[in-house]
Design a protein that fits this description.
Pfam families: DUF3452, RB_A, RB_B. Keywords: Cell cycle, Nucleus, Repressor, Transcription, Transcription regulation. InterPro entries: Cyclin-like_sf (IPR036915), RB_A (IPR002720), RB_B (IPR002719), RB_fam (IPR028309), RB_N (IPR024599). There is one protein chain. By secondary structure, the protein is mostly helical. Helix 17 crosses helix 20, helix 20 packs across helix 22 and helix 31 crosses helix 32. The chain is globular.
Length: 993
């Protein structure tokens, strides 16, 4: 069937009406003449892109898409002209908040489309504003700040309502010009304004979640002291919220620290800053609370607390609110893109619900899925188990982004901070036992790398150097350093037991290994505090490594740091998924250095696309680029970079055109497909120092393969594991049969074996989506691509860019006449690239699986060494479904949580069932609800105690269990004998935006 072109508006000028509407929008924002010219000029330059991409922008009408594009143009002009405006001592006088209100868009709508707009207009912005335009836009940082404030405002509201009554109207006369809604009490609003004053005047430019949460807790303490007793929600004498008491009364700060997992020292320090702001901004005199007699202080130990007389008086409070609002306006005028006062009102139009992930869930549940942070719940079977000994995991309240940050910060405070800032005596023995003592090398490297990640000024670009910034950076640097030494020591201990010796020179002298360890330590610290200004992959850029490098140490961190909190284990698991699904395949990934050795036939294609990594920068270059002081540090070691000759332990220069690997390897058409037993021991045989060794060196574990081949086999096994999980989840949503599921997975295996270039510079979900449609075509299923995309939207990892923008590098002689590199929609990619590449594989999937099933028994007798190079295809593995937990020693009763795909069905409006029983009924023809009652009665009766409370499933599913279930089964793959003539092209369906 012939491809149908999308129905889009012509790129011919529409008579100028679009430009007229944009000019009117600019005038409504009162742009000065210079900014107006720049905005209209950029709009004219990009208007043809808007007209050509109307069908893939936004999710609404053409008029809404035009407003989205206009908002993007205005925001780009504002941010990219800021340096010029600073030189001219002028300002554009408008913010993103004003832009969105003028264009009637929500923040979620805007951020959902910005990546697509950047992709389409990138070449023009690059030409007009320079190559670093995307970094200067700071879209990710602004989105992270929006998400953080949204989470903090919800935390503050929950805490406030837990302690105080939320009146239906303000207790006094509302401040003139106040931006808050009338149903928010003055006390509630005053607290939020005081918190914003803390953020502006007293907090570091880094503004991490833990610091801000401490600020809100200190605000709650101030409200406790000053809000009239009649507005409390509890009796202070009997309250369970304030559990710490002494003979002097309730210990307010200790109670809040116990409730919210913070430290009294930090809380007192933050309260001092807040009290100083009340003195400076509101001109209020303070006095020790112990000298004051007021009803609000009764039954509270007032020692060390500060009191402001009449601060919450109903007559003066509106005036103080007005003063705080004026201070906020003066402090942030033209400096902030979003008016942070809006977060106090969840009904604000700018906070309209939506989904930044592209999924089907409402914004209230998954509004901010783009942010990399420890997650609230297990989203896939790959989630690793929590450590039952983790000191940070004893949650007394619901997991939220704020509570997660507080519990992980407590782990850093209690477990990591007390550690020494220098290598321990045991680690020192390992470092000094190398062929050359590497202690000075290790300490100097750590100082330079962590100094680059945590500069003394907040990124050195947006904020000037301040004492607060320097203190914050030094604290985070020391936490990362101590964590690095702790995990490094544990790894050395384990490696020495494996190698039966203390000489670990191949590992401890490897530059890339140490940088990966430092990057992982720093990322965990940043993830703990949820730092807006330092987001992944900043640690990669500042250490000179790539995503593929970092993926090699993640598993070691989880295995060797037993105290790591559950939330950080999940963070590392999510991070590894990000690395596997796309980042390891991006241009400049060091994965291509290994791949080009393991599969030399791919050298030409890798070089044609320019995918090889740049040489890893030296420590000298990093120290100079990030202004890391070198005073007091030992001299720089003579580093043997990975880009040096193979004799020095590195790979050939990545930027050299790689055609000289045929002398190193026997040409192979695919990766070696190890047998089940061999793959099970693959990771254990691949020593850690071999993972970071030169790709061309022989694997010390033997087998006649290079380190590159062994490492790539491990990498590909992880890719297939991730693909299997996502294929199964999407198949369940589409309600496809097991046969179709196996065909899709089989096709993915064959693409990895024979057409791995399809993954280059792409997201693996793009290959999965195309595989589903291709298998549906050959299986003669009535499944449209729109239905596949609709189901994919409900996947937790979904992002619209996956199916909107697929990288394509057109060959010179392409039939469509297209040339160069561009990003196209997934339908174009499927028709023009995917099908021509995989058609010989796709049409034989059914017969190959049949052959596999017929010959499985016979093939199980064949030795592993008989056919080491032939690709093998296994049926879809039996992945564990959230392993059941036995809840009784005397009865065979097991309970397991639901998968998210099943939960969607059960929790649908038409469903009345929230549970299911599997197995024999306790009585014939009995309903599941009665079965559950009977089971509960038996359990309670047999044990003599009542079974109650929340079941803990965190330790049920291990990553190793899932990995083991994905081992290829013994069984040959029958080569394709012919290509059936079949039209697999896709009709151009209008894709959902």
């Amino acid at each position: 069937m012939e491809d149908m072109k999308p129905l889009i508006r012509s790129s011919v000028d529409d008579g100028g009406s679009m430009e007229t509407r944009f000019a009117d929008l600019c005038k409504s924002l009162s742009l000065d003449e210079s900014a107006l010219r720049a905005a209209i000029g950029l709009f004219r330059e990009t208007k043809h892109l808007l007209l050509a991409n109307m069908s893939v922008l936004g999710s609404g009408t053409l008029e809404e898409n035009e407003r989205l594009w206009s908002a993007f143009i205005l925001y780009s002009v504002k941010r990219l002209r800021e340096e010029k405006d600073k030189q001219d001592n002028s300002g554009d006088g408008f913010s993103l908040c004003q832009i969105l209100r003028a264009t009637k868009l929500s923040v979620v709508d805007f951020f959902k489309e910005v990546p697509q707009c950047c992709l389409k207009a990138g070449h023009i912005l690059n030409r007009m504003y320079g190559t670093n335009w995307e970094k200067r836009l700071e879209v990710k940082e602004l989105l992270a700040n929006f998400t953080q404030l949204s989470d903090l405002s919800k935390f503050y509201k929950r805490a406030y309502l837990e302690f105080f009554i939320q009146t239906s109207a303000s207790v006094g006369k509302q401040a003139s010009g106040s931006s808050r809604p009338g149903y928010i009490s003055d006390y509630h609003y005053f607290g939020w304004l005081l918190f914003l004053a803390l953020r502006v005047h007293a907090f570091s430019c880094f503004k991490d979640m833990a610091t801000c949460a401490n600020g809100l807790i200190s605000i709650l303490a101030i409200l406790f002291i000053h809000v009239p007793v009649s507005f409390r929600n509890f009796d202070i004498r009997t309250s369970q919220f304030l559990a710490k008491k002494s003979n002097k009364g309730v210990e307010l700060l200790q109670s809040l620290c116990a409730k919210y997992n913070t430290s009294e020292e930090e809380l007192r320090g933050t309260m001092e800053k807040a009290n100083k702001l009340i003195v400076d901004i509101l001109q209020k005199k303070h006095c020790p609370a112990s000298e004051c007699k007021t009803e609000s202080l009764e039954n509270i130990n007032t020692e060390g607390l500060t009191y402001f007389e009449d601060l919450m008086d109903w007559k003066s409070l509106p005036y103080y609110i007005k003063m705080l609002e004026k201070d906020y306006d003066d402090a942030v005028r033209n400096k902030l893109e979003l008016d942070e006062r809006m977060f106090i009102d969840e009904g604000d139009s700018l906070l309209a619900t939506g989904s930044l992930s592209g999924g089907a869930m409402s914004g209230s549940k998954r509004k901010h899925d783009l942010i990399t942070s420890p997650v609230k719940m297990i989203t896939s079977p790959m989630s690793p188990p929590c450590s039952p000994t983790s000191p940070a995991y004893s949650s007394k309240f619901a997991l939220t982004p704020v509570s997660t940050a507080m519990t992980t910060a407590k782990w850093l405070r209690n477990v990591i901070s007390p550690l020494p800032s220098n290598p321990s005596s045991e680690l020192g023995r390992f470092l000094s036992s190398c062929d050359k003592d590497v202690t000075n090398d290790v300490t100097r490297r750590a100082s330079i790398i962590l100094g680059a990640i945590f500069p003394n000024s907040a990124l050195g670009e947006r904020c000037g150097t301040s004492l607060i910034d320097s203190i914050w950076a030094e604290q985070r640097k020391m936490e990362a350093l101590k964590l690095y030494y702790r995990v490094l020591e544990a790894i050395c201990r384990a490696e020495s037991q494996t190698s039966n010796g203390n000489n670990l020179t191949p590992l401890l002298a490897n530059e890339r290994f140490h940088r990966c360890m430092l990057a992982c330590s720093a990322d965990l610290v940043l993830a703990t505090h949820k730092t807006v200004s330092m987001m992944f992959p900043a640690v990669l850029e500042r250490t000179g490594i790539t995503a593929f490098d970092l993926s090699k140490v993640i598993e070691g961190f989880v295995r060797h740091e037993e105290s790591l909190p559950r939330e950080l284990r999940r963070h590392l698991n999510n991070l590894e998924e990000r690395l596997l699904e796309s980042m390891a395949w991006e241009k400049g990934s060091s994965m291509y250095d290994s791949l080009i050795v393991a599969r030399s036939s791919l050298a030409a294609e890798i070089n044609r696309l320019g995918l090889l990594a740049e040489p890893m920068p030296s420590l000298d270059a990093i120290a100079m680029h990030h202004n890391v002081p070198a005073a007091g540090l030992p001299p720089l070691p003579a580093i043997k970079h990975d880009i040096s000759s193979d004799k020095n332990g590195g790979a050939p220069s990545p930027k050299r055109f790689c055609t000289d690997y045929r002398s190193v390897l026997v040409e192979r058409n695919s990766f070696t497909s190890p047998s089940k037993d061999r793959l099970n021991s693959l990771k254990s045989k691949l020593a850690l120092h071999s993972v970071f060794a030169s790709p061309t060196r022989p694997n010390p574990a033997g087998g006649g393969e290079t380190c590159a081949e062994a490492g790539m086999n491990v990498f590909i096994s992880k890719i297939l594991k991730l693909a299997a999980i996502r294929v199964r989840s999407l198949s369940e949503r589409l309600q496809l049969s097991q046969q179709v599921l196996e065909r899709v997975y089989s096709l993915m295996q064959q693409i990895i074996n024979k057409q791995i270039a399809l993954f280059f510079n792409r997201h693996i979900d793009q290959i999965i989506l195309c595989s589903f449609y291709g298998v549906a075509k050959i299986s003669q299923l009535s499944l449209t691509f729109k239905e596949i995309i609709s189901s994919y939207r409900r996947q937790p990892q979904c992002k619209p860019q996956v199916f909107r923008s697929v990288f394509v590098a057109w060959p010179l002689a392409h039939r469509s006449g297209r040339m160069g590199q561009e990003h196209v929609d997934i339908i174009t990619f499927y028709n023009e690239v995917f099908i021509p590449s995989v058609k010989p594989l796709l049409v034989e999937v059914d017969s190959s699986l049949s052959t596999l099933n017929n010959n499985r028994t016979e093939d199980s007798k064949i030795g592993d060494g008989q056919c080491p190079c032939s690709p093998r295809v296994s049926p879809f593995p039996s992945l564990p479904d959230m392993s059941p937990k036995k809840v009784s020693a005397g009865h065979n009763v097991y309970v397991s949580p639901l998968r998210s795909s099943k939960m969607d069905i059960l929790l649908s409006p038409s469903s009345k069932s929230y549970y299911a029983c599997i197995g024999e009924s306790t009585h014939a023809y009995q309903s599941p609800s009665k079965d559950l009652t009977e089971i509960n009665n038996r359990l309670n009766g047999s044990s003599g105690r009542k079974v109650s409370g929340r079941l803990n499933f965190d330790s049920l599913v291990s990553d190793s269990l899932v990995a083991g279930s994905l081992c290829p089964q013994n069984g040959p793959f029958t080569p394709f004998s012919s290509v059936t003539s079949l039209n697999l092209a896709m009709k151009y369906e209008q894709p959902d935006p």
